[in-house]
Amino acid sequence: MEREERGENERIAAAKAFLSEALRCDRRIEALLERARHYEEMATRITGRMGRMERSDAAYSRVEEGAVALADLSEALAREVERLTGRVREIEEAIDALPDARERDMLRWRYLNGWTWEHVAGALFVHVRQVYRMHDKALETVAARGFADRAEAAGL
Which of 8-12, 38-42, 128-132, 136-140 has the least mean pLDDT? Predict the structure, then answer.
C-alpha cells in the first residue's frame, strides 16, 4: 500500500513538473527569439559590408563565412524554438483534455499565464484553499492520463 501511494505521489509530482515547464519554455523561446533578432541584425550589417567589397578581397570570404555561420545559428535557434513550442502544445493538450472547465481554467491561468494562486482564486470566486484542492484533483487527472509520461517518451 505504501509503495503504491509513493508511486502515485511520484506521478502527481511528475505531472506538476510537466505543467510547470510551460512558463520556462515560453521564457526560453523569448530569449531565443531575441537572440535570433540580434543575429539577423548582425547578418544585415555583414551583408551590407559585402556589397562594398571586391569579390577577390580576402576580407570578403571572411565576411561571407561569418554570414553563413550566422545563418546556421539562426536555423539552430529556429529548431529549438519549434521543439519548445511543441512542448508547450503538449502541456496545453493535457490541460484541454481535463473534463472540468474550472480545472482547465485554473491550470491554464497558473501554468500558462503564471498567475499566483490568489489571483486564480479571485478569478474563480473561491478561497485559495479551494483552489489548492482543485489543483490536487486536476494534477491527479493529468497524472492518471499519463500526459507527462507520453511527453517525456517523445523527448519534448
Answer: 38-42
Hey, what's the cell of 143? Answer: 497524472
Chain-centroid distance, C-alpha 76? 16
C-alpha grid cell, residue 92: 496545453
- The Cα 92–Cα 75 span in angstroms is 26
C-alpha cell at 104: 482547465
Can you give the pTM of this predicted structure? 0.72
* CA gap 58, 79 in Å, rounded: 32
CA 91 – CA 152 distance, rounded (Å) = 11
Q: Which three cell numbers stand for residue 84?
A: 519548445
Distance in angstroms (rounded) separating the CA atoms of residues 37 and 44: 11
CB burial of 32-57 (b: ≥16 within 10 Å; e: otherwise) equals beeebeebeebbeebeeeeeeeeeee
For 115, list phi and psi in degrees, rounded to 5: -70, 155
